[in-house]
UniProtKB/TrEMBL annotation:
<feature type="region of interest" description="Disordered">
    <location>
        <begin position="1"/>
        <end position="33"/>
    </location>
</feature>
<dbReference type="InterPro" id="IPR003439">
    <property type="entry name" value="ABC_transporter-like_ATP-bd"/>
</dbReference>
<keyword id="KW-0547">Nucleotide-binding</keyword>
<comment type="similarity">
    <text>Belongs to the ABC transporter superfamily.</text>
</comment>
<feature type="domain" description="ABC transporter">
    <location>
        <begin position="38"/>
        <end position="263"/>
    </location>
</feature>
<dbReference type="GO" id="GO:0005524">
    <property type="term" value="F:ATP binding"/>
</dbReference>
<dbReference type="InterPro" id="IPR027417">
    <property type="entry name" value="P-loop_NTPase"/>
</dbReference>
<dbReference type="Pfam" id="PF00005">
    <property type="entry name" value="ABC_tran"/>
</dbReference>
<keyword id="KW-0813">Transport</keyword>
<dbReference type="InterPro" id="IPR003593">
    <property type="entry name" value="AAA+_ATPase"/>
</dbReference>
<keyword id="KW-0067">ATP-binding</keyword>
<feature type="compositionally biased region" description="Low complexity">
    <location>
        <begin position="20"/>
        <end position="33"/>
    </location>
</feature>
<protein>
    <submittedName>
        <fullName>ATP-binding cassette domain-containing protein</fullName>
    </submittedName>
</protein>
Length: 346
C-alpha cells in the first residue's frame, strides 16, 4: 500500500459503547480463556476491477502466534482491515471469537489492533493519548500505567508523541492494542522501525501473549524474523492463499541445499561420491560443498573407505529464499536483478 493509499484507507476503529459491558476490561494481564480465534471464510475484496484479496480462507488459533506473510501489495493490510470491520468484504466473511468484529459489545477488550504507528494526536503525551483511549472505552486508568510499563515507555510516557521515533511510535501503538487486555491481537508489521533490541522485545512479548492463550495474528514481509516468532504461517501473494502451514513444516520443506564436508582426503571422497545428480565444489579452505547427496550417504561412503570426517554439516536453504521462491510469481513489482539474500540460514 502506498502512503497515499494508507492515508486514504486509514480509519479509526469503530467506536464501542462505553456502558457497563465495556468496563469489564481486566487490569491484571489475565489469561485469555474463551478466545476462539479468527476465522476468514472466502474473504474477497475488489477495488474497482482489481481483486486484491481472492477467496481467502484461513483460521488463526488461540494460543499461537500466526505470521501473516506476503510480499508488498499482497493484501495483508486489506485482509486485516476486513477482519477488524474497517473494510467491508466484497464477498466472504471474517469472524473474531465467533462473531464479526462489529458485533462485539466492547471491541477493544476483545481485539487489540495495530494498523499504523503514530495515528495519534502529535501534541499529546503518550500517557494522555492512552488515558483518552482508556476513558472512551471504560478502561481504568491503572491499566494505562500497566501497558506503559509493559511496552517500555515509562521514561517517555509524558513526552509529546510528535517527538517520538518510529520505534517509540510502534511501542505506543502496541500499548494501545494491549489496553483492553484483549483475547485477540491483530498487528500489522509491528517490528517496523524497531531496533534489534525492540525486535527481540516484540518477539518475546508476542510469544508470551500467545502462551497466555491469546490469539495473535502478526503480519510481516520478513520470513526469517517471522519464523523466529510465529508457530504458524499464513502466506499470501496477490491476494491468494499460497501456504497455510506450521513454521516447523515450512522450515523442513525449505530443505537442505547442500552438505559441507571437512576431511583430510577431499580428493578421494569427491571421487567416491561422484555420480549422476551429485555436484561437488571445493571450498576456499579445502572443505567440500556437496549437492545431490545427503549427509547419511556421504558419512556412510566415508566410513566404508576409512576416510576421516571432521565435519559433516547440512546447510539449509535460507528461509528467505524459500519464501521468495514461493511468492516469486506473486510479487507486484519484480526487481530486474535479484541478489541472493544474505544469511538467514534456518
Ligand atoms: N483503498 C484502496 N483502493 C484501491 N486499491 C487499494 C486500496 N487499498 C489497497 N489497495 C491495493 O490492494 C493491494 C493490496 O494492498 P495491501 O496494502 O493490502 O497489501 P499489503 O500486503 O499489506 O502490502 P504492504 O506490505 O506493502 O503493506 C495493493 O495492490 C494496493 O495497491
Amino acid at each position: 500500500m502506498t502512503s497515499t493509499q494508507r492515508t486514504a484507507a486509514r480509519g479509526s476503529l469503530p467506536a464501542p459503547p462505553t456502558g457497563p459491558e465495556a468496563s469489564a476490561a481486566t487490569t491484571t494481564g489475565s489469561t485469555a480463556a474463551g478466545s476462539a480465534g479468527i476465522e476468514a471464510v472466502g474473504l474477497t475484496k475488489r477495488y474497482g476491477d482489481k481483486t486484491v484479496v481472492h477467496d481467502l480462507s484461513f483460521t488463526v488459533r488461540p494460543g499461537t502466534v500466526t505470521g501473516f506473510l506476503g510480499p508488498n501489495g499482497a493484501g495483508k493490510s486489506t485482509t486485516m482491515r476486513m477482519i477488524l470491520g474497517l473494510d467491508a468484504p466484497t464477498r466472504g466473511r471474517a469472524v473474531v471469537g465467533g462473531r464479526p468484529y462489529r458485533a462485539h459489545g466492547a471491541p477493544l477488550t476483545e481485539v487489540g489492533a495495530l494498523l499504523e504507528a503514530k495515528s495519534v494526536h502529535p501534541g499529546r503525551s503518550a500517557r494522555n493519548h492512552l488515558l483518552a483511549l482508556a476513558h472512551t472505552h471504560g478502561i481504568p486508568a491503572s491499566r494505562v500505567d500497566t501497558v506503559i510499563e509493559l511496552t517500555g515507555l515509562t521514561e517517555v510516557a509524558r513526552h509529546r508523541v510528535k517527538g517520538f521515533s518510529l520505534g517509540m511510535g510502534q511501542r505506543l501503538g502496541i500499548a494501545a492494542a494491549l489496553l483492553g487486555d484483549p483475547a485477540t491481537l491483530v498487528l500489522d508489521e509491528p517490528v517496523n522501525g524497531l531496533d534489534p533490541e525492540g525486535v527481540l522485545w516484540i518477539r518475546t512479548l508476542l510469544k508470551s501473549l500467545a502462551a497466555e492463550g491469546r490469539t495473535v495474528l502478526v503480519s510481516s514481509h520478513l520470513m526469517s524474523e517471522t519464523a523466529l516468532t510465529a508457530d504458524h504461517l499464513v502466506i499470501i501473494g496477490r491476494g491468494r492463499l499460497l501456504a497455510d502451514t506450521t513454521v516447523e513444516e515450512f522450515v523442513r520443506h525449505a530443505g537442505t541445499a547442500s552438505v559441507r564436508v571437512v576431511t583430510p582426503e577431499p580428493g578421494t571422497l569427491a571421487e567416491l561420491l561422484a555420480g549422476p545428480g551429485v555436484e561437488i565444489a571445493p571450498g576456499a579452505r579445502g572443505e567440500l560443498d556437496v549437492r545431490g547427496a545427503d549427509s547419511t550417504r556421504i558419512g556412510t561412503t566415508a566410513a566404508e573407505h576409512g576416510i576421516p570426517l571432521y565435519e559433516l554439516t547440512p546447510v539449509r536453504a535460507s528461509l528467505e529464499q524459500a519464501f521468495m521462491d514461493l511468492t516469486r510469481d506473486a510479487v507486484e513489482y519484480q526487481a530486474r536483478t535479484s541478489a541472493a539474500p544474505e544469511g538467514a540460514a534456518a
